[in-house]
Amino acid sequence: MAKGAKIYEGKAKTLYEGPEPGTIIQYFKDDATAFNAEKKDVIDGKGALNNRFSEHFMQGLESIGLPTHFIKRLNMREQLVKRVDIVPLEVIVRNVAAGSMSKRLGIEEGTKLNRPLVEFSYKDDSLGDPLVAEEHILALEWATQRELDEMISMALRVNDFLSGTMHAVGIKLVDFKIEIGRLTENDYQQLVIADEISPDSCRLWDIETGQKLDKDVFRRDLGNLTDAYSEVARRLGLLPKNTTTPKLVK
Predict the structure, then answer these.
(1) Are the C-beta atoms of residues 46 and 40 closer than 8 Å to each other?
(2) How high is the pLDDT of residue 186?
């Protein structure tokens, strides 16, 4: 499928005009970044794996009634999605203290929370994606109260789905972040899950060993990132067993 003009290039994906009005082609890059792009590298196979992960999870969310921007995967690195107006927030759900939360609050990494915690950060790399309160969101009109309530509900449903999916293959979902967009069709607007869902946007630990199977492998120099992502893909049935390269299952 032919791509149109480039719309946007981010750290992990490039967006192009799609073949029909209201569509976008999302291209997954092999680039890996951390600490607001202070650390960079190119990881062979990462983009193809994340494309397949995102397809798998978006289809799973659709199957339980959560709307997404996903239409279909086009090839190893590209998928067709609906054009949406992205809410300028990252919605973060935490089940276990880790990463910035542990540093910020002085809580030992790995401490289980007694309930899922939903946080919001303002999407601005130059500011370091700062955490914001619900009052900021409402006062600055980034979302309405109805949208805010719906985003929290959607995030918790995503958490239930991802937690169960990962637990079934021996992986603990520590935390994740999603983006949400406003989709307008036939004069009707609704909120949908957008961007991607992959080990780039989740913290995933092996339940038995605690081995990290997410982008912390790159952040903390813990090994080969493609190997970690491939292990998650094999457990989910997205790669054949004993496969070490991202040759994707149709």
Answers:
(1) no
(2) 85
**By three-state DSSP, how is residue 69 classified?**
coil
Q: Are the beta carbons of 109 and 76 closer than 8 angstroms?
A: no
pTM of the predicted structure, to 2 decimals = 0.93
By the 10 Å C-beta count (0-12 exposed, 13-18 middle, 19+ buried), 197 is classed as buried
Which domains does the chain show, CATH number per domain? Answer: 6-83+225-235 (3.30.200.20), 85-206 (3.30.470.20)
**3-class secondary-structure state, position 20:** coil
Assigned token pair, 140? 């600055």
Alpha helix (H) ranges present in the chain? 46-63, 99-105, 134-139, 145-167, 216-219, 225-235
- 75's CB contacts (< 8 A; 6+ apart) are none
**Alpha-carbon gap, residue 5 to 120, rounded angstroms:** 32
**Mean pLDDT for each 10-residue chunk of the chain (250 residues)?**
87 95 96 80 94 98 98 97 98 97 96 98 94 98 98 98 98 98 93 97 97 96 95 95 55
Please name the amino acid found at residue 250. K
DSSP per residue, 79-132: EEEE--EE-SEEEEEEEE--HHHHHHHTPPTTPEEEEEEEEEEE--GGGT--EE
